[in-house]
Amino acid sequence: MRFASASLFLIFAFNLSSVVLSCRTTEVRKEHLILANSSEDIAIFSVSNEVLSSILPHNIYLLNSIFSEQIEISPILKRVDYRLSILSSEDWNALLEPNTLAKLDEMLSESIQKNPSGAYLILVKKDDPLSPLTKILRTSILYIKTVNGEVIIIPDLRQNITFASQYKFDDWSIYTLEKVKTSYKQDLRVKSKGTPMSFYIEKSADKISVYGRVIIHKEIELLPKPILLRVPDEEEINTIKSDWQSVPDRIKILDDLRKKKLINEEEYQNKKKQLLDEL
Questions:
Q1: Where is the signal peptide (predicted)?
Q2: Which of 90, 91, 77, 166 lies closest to 124 in space, CA to CA?
Q3: Among candidate residues 210, 209, 208, 217, the one with its CA nearest the CA of residue 190
Q4: Phi, psi at 41, each rounded to 5°
Q5: Which residue(s) pair with 183 in the sheet?
Q6: Residue 163 and residue 13: Cα distance in Å, rounded?
Q7: Is the sign of the CA dihedral 6, 11, 17, 23 positive or negative?
């Protein structure tokens, strides 16, 4: 009897500790990703600074700010198209439908008023017409405020998700943000008309990294020169790298021209500034 009682006590203690651990894990998740607003097809979460620091490229994270006033994301997303088919370079469609964009603007404004944050995770789902109760297409968008603009990150583009039975909100809104990585997929493009927008690139001593799912809007510290309205192919990347690596050599030539008094100081400074801007 004593042995049985002891065994029951150990089982109870183990189950209790599992419940406590589960609750703590849930609390941690809630702290970092808090549901700010939702509808039948849209879920908006505020994202903690701790998460942003662990997933964003360093240069983007350094410029992170807080959404403090009403904004509209629709003018930005209207300029982003996705490729319908990898077999056609001209087969493009709008990222989100107009009615979804209007709804998103309203819900984001409400979220900012209630729970100001430096970033929001937006999940948009669409029922699969062939299996509307168990299959969806889900697009995820990370909307980040910077000092002078915004950053749009699209981790998942019309991701096909199938559920074992009829799904509920808690099923399709579960999400884990992962570290933002380089991507050379050419499945998105940016329309040129409007405020400055570009795909994000990073330059190091020996390579150029392209982030094909990261789009910069108006943030002058992050916009590349020239701006990229589509993800470049390998040959274009090599050209960009070659031009960038040649800048130090061109500055040396510029120094020689000044020493030989072939250009004056003002011309030297202006041209040097142009070259440094290319970096």
A1: 1-22
A2: 77
A3: 217
A4: -120, -5
A5: 211
A6: 34
A7: negative
* pLDDT for the residue numbered 88: 66
- Measured CA to CA, the distance from residue 36 to residue 199 in angstroms comes to 28
Query: Distance between CA atoms of 90 and 249, rounded to whole angstroms?
Result: 39
- Tell me the two tokens of residue 250: 């061109």
CB of 200 closer than 8 Å to CB of 60: yes
The pTM score is 0.77
CA-to-CA distance for 190 and 197, rounded, in angstroms? 7
Please report, for the chain, the start and end positions of each structural domain, with discontinuous segments joined by +.
Answer: 32-232, 249-278
| Distance between CA atoms of residues 199 and 164, nearest Å | 37
* DSSP-derived 3-state class of residue 46: strand
55 close to 177: Cβ distance less than 8 angstroms: yes
CA distances from 223 to 148, 185, 258 (A): 11, 19, 31
Residue 90 pLDDT > 80, yes or no?
no
**How far is 121 from 93, CA to CA, in rounded Å?**
22
- Closest to 84 measured CA to CA, from 183, 165, 188: 188
pLDDT (tens digit per residue) in 120-178: 999 999 999 889 899 999 999 999 999 999 999 999 999 999 999 999 999 999 999 99
Structure-block tokens of residue 240 = 């960009």
Amino acid at 166: Q
The sign one gets for the Cα dihedral 260, 264, 266, 268 is: negative
Question: Amino acid identity, residue 2?
Answer: R
CB neighbours (10 Å) of residue 124?
24
The beta-carbon contacts of 48-52 under 8 Å, at least 24 apart in sequence, are 49/118, 51/177, 52/118, 52/119, 52/144
